[in-house]
Write a structure and sequence with these properties.
By secondary structure, this protein is of the alpha+beta class. It has 14 helices and 17 strands. β4 and β5 form a beta hairpin.
Length: about 500
């Protein structure tokens, strides 16, 4: 006679069987989601607009001439020397006569432009194409000199060299080149197109884009969507994807700069106290760096991963298709690089230190500037509270350098604006994967957030890993053929409106 199984053993066998069944079920879900990942992508668009390309050499020369005008913004206000800004606007008027005679031209804030291209159908909501023509200062860095002077506007070796070639005069002139050519062909858009070109984006846009947005709001203008600088066509930048990836950014980060201030008694360096202002500040900065804000995959990052995931190899595709299970691994992989980590968290970057007047005199005050780029979902108030808790020292004063900016609302990648821009991108770069993305910097776009919920950020430019450091860095340049391709993008975009 068979002896009955002891109850504890029977219970263990049942638990084991259920565990195996559970693992099998999870494995089945993972497999199905991996195989079907990317099916029925909601971001695909159909219409392809054909636009003839323009002569690259002539385009390059006109861009180079614009780069020779040193429209530099510095500090926290409009540049002191406005002569180059006046010269730049005069150059635009002379170079694009059809635009300046066929569109209504307004100066805003002294040196920003608002151009109105009245469409044929007044019932359609207008669209806004915007960019900025001010640039950051051009300095050499240790071990790296400019191949050509930054404001010489040199055309050589297949490139146009100079400050502003990438950020952002190529967008401003690219839009104008496309508009000028279309006007010469007798084209007029169905809907009204507003062209807005700021002169102080690099210092916050308060006298440029902010005033343009206020003027449009006062007129009751409610654009269907807006396109500004931001995402680009990346080649070899997105891990695991061999095809170029065109990132049309549907969200951007917020901005906050805090000053941390420590004080102590001064005196001679031969008799230092146990704690100095420099030491207090150093410990505060170290604590802050040791406690970064947490990573998370937000809605925009999730939409980007859904778009690029099907282009990856099987292991990576399995991870991205099953973030409900492997989200921690995705965060770890993307967070391994500074660029990937910036997509997943509010970043903390100490950028400036100031203390002391002489090597043998104790500093009575030490200051550190820390810059934060806020992930959508985080707030300026929340970040300040995080800093206060991380530093955990009431002797450290926290002082915002200027009002921070909250991250603007994200744009729906299934909206009209994204579909229209994506169609022009696919027509210009048919080999690229188009994906919604998050801009880790800030742009003038945020000033228009009260006018429309569809804020898009894309500039028609292909960049590789070696090009990233050229933004605000040494040897900024744009390929001659690439710039001509970008002008073609704007022509397709305008023809599709």
């Amino acid at each position: 006679m068979k002896r009955p199984m002891k109850r504890p053993v029977k219970r263990l066998l049942i638990i084991a069987a259920l565990s195996i069944a559970g693992v099998a079920a999870v494995a089945a879900v993972v497999a199905v989601r991996t195989v079907t990942f990317g099916d029925g992508s909601p971001h695909e668009t159909g219409a392809v607009v054909v636009a003839p390309e323009m002569e690259p050499a002539e385009l390059a020369e006109r861009l180079a001439a614009a780069l020779r005008l040193a429209t530099v913004s510095t500090g926290g206000a409009v540049a002191a020397d406005l002569e180059p800004f006046d010269a730049f606007l005069a150059y635009l008027e002379a170079t694009y006569p059809a635009v300046h005679s066929g569109l209504r031209v307004e100066r805003v804030g002294g040196h920003s432009l608002l151009l109105t291209w009245v469409g044929d159908d007044a019932t359609l909501e207008p669209v806004v194409l915007t960019g900025h023509y001010d640039v950051v200062p051009a300095r050499s860095v240790a071990g790296a000199e400019w191949t050509h002077p930054p404001f010489a506007g040199v055309v050589a070796d297949g490139y146009v060299w100079g400050r502003g070639a990438m950020d952002d005069k190529s967008s401003v002139l690219g839009i104008l080149e496309a508009a000028e050519a279309l006007l010469a062909d007798g084209f007029n858009p169905q809907r009204t197109v507003l062209l807005a070109f700021g002169h102080d984006e690099e210092v916050g846009g308060r006298d440029g884009a902010r005033l343009v947005a206020e003027r449009l709001a006062a007129r009751g203008v409610a654009p269907a969507w807006l396109l500004d600088e931001g995402g680009m066509v990346t080649d070899g930048v997105v891990p695991g994807v061999t095809a170029p990836v065109a990132l049309v950014n549907v969200a951007e980060k917020g901005f906050l700069s805090l000053e941390l201030v420590a004080r102590s008694t001064g005196g001679h360096s031969s008799m230092p106290p146990r704690e100095t202002a420099v030491g207090l500040l150093g410990r505060a900065v170290a604590r802050l760096e040791a406690r970064p804000l947490p990573r998370r995959i937000g809605p925009t990052m999730a939409a980007m991963l859904d778009a690029i995931g099907p282009e990856m190899d099987l292991p990576a595709r399995a991870l991205l298709a099953n973030r409900w299970l492997f989200g921690w691994a995705v965060e770890r992989v993307f967070g391994a690089s500074p660029s990937g980590d910036a997509l997943l968290r509010t970043t903390t970057a100490p950028t400036m230190l100031r203390a002391g007047v002489k090597d043998n005199v104790l500093a009575t005050e030490a200051r550190a500037t820390v810059n934060f780029r806020l992930l959508p979902g985080d707030t300026v108030e929340g970040v300040i509270e995080h800093v206060r808790q991380a530093v955990d020292d009431p002797r450290i004063e926290l002082r915002p350098l200027r009002p921070g900016s909250e991250p603007p609302p994200a744009t729906d990648p299934d909206g009209e604006g994204f579909r229209t821009v994506a169609a022009a991108v696919r027509a210009t770069w048919p080999e690229a994967v188009v994906a919604p993305g998050l801009l880790v910097a800030t742009t003038d776009t945020r000033h228009y957030a009260s006018l429309t919920r569809q804020l898009l950020r894309f500039q028609p430019l292909t960049v590789g890993p070696e090009d990233v450091a050229r933004f605000h860095g040494v040897d900024e340049r744009i390929g001659i053929a690439e710039y001509a391709r970008g002008v073609g993008f704007y022509r397709r975009l305008l023809l599709g409106l």
